């Protein structure tokens, strides 16, 4: 095999962007591009989802963090909403029939605020007119005349009874306790002494007449009470007539103004009936200064204001809304979504009324769109269930979060549910979408539109120009210095590095924006008028420097030999594998020593990491694939009689992934064939059971990680990395590594089969290695067979 044919050239390691070919000098000459680039699939899905008006056609916008999905989604929705009509206003008013169930009233946008003002004006008028109606001279005259009639009728009753008593020889007397009858003798009240001198017959007659009069007295008292009640009712009717005379025109004007709105007219009728039925509440109480002072000292609650019931709670005011509402709720708790009922605490007693009902995001978004981040909603399970209930039932019911948990709470209001027409748009990662689709049976019924963001776009000339427009938009929006063509070119290259592909650009725009801001800051510090490539490069390097302390510490341990690793020579059963470590905002490559021991036995391949639970499932699968390869390659004539152990040396944090499976296979074959492997080469790539090399992730970080380790130990001119040929388009290596390859100080080899790498690592033909492995396995088999025969 010609090893040189596997070696990559410097031009394959990096795709530069030629600033001289960009059709501008700086971004002041570029038309700003304000929207997210290259997301046609999302755009079409969103436009369709926003236009379809059917239950369940809510939208889930899926995409990786930093792709700008929330910003783009809001922009698209706001554009659509601006063409739609404004939603209705919603008010809560007192329910005169069921006070614990406030009524919901809808009005055209803007009329709710006018309704509140009209009701406030009416209440202010009522406060003046109602007491005036009771205290007017005309009212007092009519009441005086009424009670004079009562006095006349009651006096007539008394006179009739008194006449009867006189005929019986008795007189009637009024006392503080009522009426009493007293027997007379010669026109004078009979004394006790005179009564005792009477003969028994006369006394019996007196007692009989006294009992008869007592019965008549009881009858008269009953008639007086009925008469008083009759006149009290007449007085109430009179006051009602006077009150109606005072307020009738006010209420009539309101009913006429809102005659198109049946709910408002019914509410105004309820006010009229309430005033007539509760006239005593509207009378000004007599002042009791001593009582008021005592109540103040004791902290007693003042009497309820009868006019509070007539206040209107404007729950949703759409007067300032242009088009349909677009609401983004950053903290979607249960109450922030569906609203809440507030309470007033007086001396430990909680009270509330319809004016303390507060709107939630669903109320404000009613008739329009509600945007939520799915991770925030799911962080509040009660909120997620409430949201689904609203979408299923088509109404917003304000309630306590504990109502659906069977937990007893204080008695509260039960406001009338408000019908809702809202399109909910959730944003989040694809993982959230898949989990909800799998485990929440309601989710597929309620969110039928999926709009998925791609985290990369094709690196075409058109998209490179669009990237320049994106940079221009950021400069314009944030008042930044313009980017020179060289600065734009370097950003494009950086974007391809983020995308890990020479023919792609990253759609993780938040990371690109960070570099734009930081590069502009470095240009400002340098006193430059424009942001050049050098400023972008400084921003990238400084960003790395702020985050790579751990990488430097590991590099020191490798250089000092604390972490064992050979970068020269050859050894049997030992190879350099490559891994990627992620510290959150920074990832880097780390070489690791992989060792393999093979010996007589029938246990197969022992994955030491798995035995101590430091291995993930994908790595376990990779090791099992190795057993499949060995069986298919060497066990056609005799079974495998082998025990082998594989280990990532000095690994204490765990390992996962199959990108080291090729390196592990090379270590096993080296041990079996007793052929040393080059230690100046590192290997990355997975392998299948057929011996084909498969691509892996993090190729740039892995290559750079081994390069810097070799550099710290001393570059020999023979060191390099063996990698899958499929990963060549993913190469966007930094300038130093590219220059080292160009100078022949470092080398990259792209392979497609295990045999190609085997020859690079051993310097021997692959066929010879396989013969040695077969011979060793045959030897193991023969020994075990002999042991079985004995």
Structure description:
Pfam families: AAA_32, Lon_C, LonB_AAA-LID, LonC_helical. It is an enzyme of class 3 (hydrolase). Residues 569-764 form the Lon proteolytic domain. The active site is at residues 659, 702. The protein is of the alpha/beta class and 790 residues long. It has 3 domains: 3-38 and 454-547, Helicase, Ruva Protein, domain 3 (Orthogonal Bundle), CATH 1.10.8.60; 92-315, no CATH class; 563-789, Ribosomal Protein S5, domain 2, CATH 3.30.230.10. The chain is built from 27 helices and 30 strands. Strand 29 (720-724), helix 25 (735-742) and strand 30 form a beta-alpha-beta unit. The relative contact order is 0.11. Residues 294-301 have low confidence and may be disordered.
The overall number of domains is: 3
Name of the CATH architecture of the largest domain: 2-Layer Sandwich
The main sheet comes to:
7 strands, mixed
What does the average pLDDT come to? 86
Distance between the termini: 46 Å
Q: Report the total helices.
A: 27
Structural class: alpha/beta
Rg over C-alpha atoms, rounded to the nearest angstrom = 47 Å
Strand content: 15-25%
Read across the widest sheet, the strand sequence of neighbours is 23-24-22-21-26-29-30
Shape field: elongated
> Count the strands?
30
Low-confidence segments, given as residue ranges, are 294-301
What share of residues is helical?
Answer: 40-55%
CATH class descriptor of the largest domain:
Alpha Beta
CATH fold descriptor of the largest domain: Ribosomal Protein S5, domain 2
């Amino acid at each position: 095999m010609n090893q040189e044919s596997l070696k990559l050239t410097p031009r394959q390691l990096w795709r530069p962007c030629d600033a001289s070919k960009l059709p501008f000098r700086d971004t002041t000459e570029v038309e700003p591009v304000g929207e997210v680039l290259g997301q046609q699939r999302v755009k079409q899905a969103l436009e369709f989802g926003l236009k379809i008006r059917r239950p369940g056609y809510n939208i889930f916008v899926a995409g990786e963090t930093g792709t700008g999905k929330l910003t783009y989604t809001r922009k698209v929705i706001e554009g659509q909403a601006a063409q739609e009509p404004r939603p209705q206003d919603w008010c809560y008013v007192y329910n005169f029939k069921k006070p614990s169930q406030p009524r919901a009233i809808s009005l055209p946008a803007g009329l709710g605020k006018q309704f509140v003002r009209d009701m406030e004006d009416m209440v202010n008028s009522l406060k003046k007119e109602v007491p005036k109606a009771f205290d007017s001279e005309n009212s007092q005259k009519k009441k005086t005349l009424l009670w004079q009639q009562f006095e006349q009728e009651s006096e007539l009753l008394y006179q009739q009874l008194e006449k009867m008593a006189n005929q019986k020889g008795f007189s009637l007397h009024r006392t503080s306790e009522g009426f009493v009858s007293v027997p007379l003798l010669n026109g004078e009240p009979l004394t006790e002494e005179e009564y005792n001198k009477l003969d028994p017959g006369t006394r019996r007659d007196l007692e009989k007449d006294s009992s008869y009069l007592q019965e008549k007295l009881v009858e008269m008292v009953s008639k007086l009470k009925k008469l008083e009640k009759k006149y009290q009712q007449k007085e109430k009717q009179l006051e009602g007539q006077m009150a109606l005379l005072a307020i009738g025109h006010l209420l009539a004007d309101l009913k006429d103004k809102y005659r198109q709105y049946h709910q408002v007219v019914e509410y105004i009728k309820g006010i009229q009936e309430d005033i007539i039925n509760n006239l005593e509440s509207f009378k000004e109480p007599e002042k009791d200064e001593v009582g008021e002072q005592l109540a103040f000292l004791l902290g007693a609650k003042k009497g309820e204001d009868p006019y509070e019931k007539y206040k209107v709670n404007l729950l949703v005011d759409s007067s300032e809304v242009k088009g349909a509402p677009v609401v983004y709720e950053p903290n979607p708790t249960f109450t922030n979504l569906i609203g809440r009922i507030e309470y007033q605490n007086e001396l430990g007693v909680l009270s509330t009324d319809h004016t303390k009902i507060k709107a939630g995001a669903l109320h404000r978004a009613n008739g329009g769109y509600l945007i939520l981040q799915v991770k925030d909603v799911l962080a509040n399970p009660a909120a997620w269930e409430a949201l689904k209930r609203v979408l299923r039932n088509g109404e917003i019911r304000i309630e306590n979060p504990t109502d659906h948990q069977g937990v007893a709470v204080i008695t509260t209001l039960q406001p009338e549910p408000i019908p809702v027409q809202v399109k909910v748009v959730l944003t989040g990662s694809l993982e959230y979408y898949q989990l909800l689709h799998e485990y929440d049976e309601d989710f597929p019924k309620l969110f039928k539109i999926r709009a998925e963001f791609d985290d990369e776009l094709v690196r075409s000339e058109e998209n490179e120009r669009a990237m320049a427009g994106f940079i221009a938009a950021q400069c314009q929006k944030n008042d930044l210095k313009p980017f020179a063509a060289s600065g734009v070119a370097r950003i494009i290259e950086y974007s391809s590095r983020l995308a890990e592909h020479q023919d792609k650009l990253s759609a993780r725009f938040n990371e690109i924006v960070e570099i734009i801001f930081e590069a502009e800051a470095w240009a400002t510090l340098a006193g430059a008028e424009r942001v050049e490539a050098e400023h972008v490069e400084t921003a990238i390097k400084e960003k790395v420097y702020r985050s790579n302390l751990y990488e430097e510490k590991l590099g020191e341990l490798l250089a000092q030999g604390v972490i064992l690793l050979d970068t020269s020579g050859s050894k049997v059963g030992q190879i350099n594998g490559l891994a990627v470590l992620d510290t959150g905002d920074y990832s880097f490559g780390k070489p690791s020593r992989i060792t393999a021991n093979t010996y007589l036995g029938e246990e197969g391949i022992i994955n030491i990491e798995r035995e101590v639970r430091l291995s993930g499932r994908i790595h376990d699968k990779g090791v099992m694939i190795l057993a499949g390869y060995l069986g298919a390659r060497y066990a056609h004539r005799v079974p495998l009689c082998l025990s082998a152990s594989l280990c990532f040396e000095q690994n204490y944090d765990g390992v996962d992934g199959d990108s080291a499976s090729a390196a592990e296979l090379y270590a096993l074959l080296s041990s079996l064939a007793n052929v040393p492997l080059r230690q100046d080469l590192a290997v990355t790539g997975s392998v299948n059971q057929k011996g084909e090399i498969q691509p892996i992730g993090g190729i740039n970080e892995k290559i750079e990680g081994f390069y810097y380790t070799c550099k710290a130990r001393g570059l020999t001119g023979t060191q390099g990395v063996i990698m899958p040929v499929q990963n060549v388009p993913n190469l966007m290596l930094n300038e130093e590594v590219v220059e080292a390859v160009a100078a022949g100080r470092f080398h990259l080899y792209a392979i497609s089969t295990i045999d190609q790498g085997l020859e690079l690592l051993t310097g021997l033909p692959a066929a010879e290695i396989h013969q040695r492995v077969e011979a060793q396995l045959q030897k193991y088999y023969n020994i075990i067979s002999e042991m079985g025969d004995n």
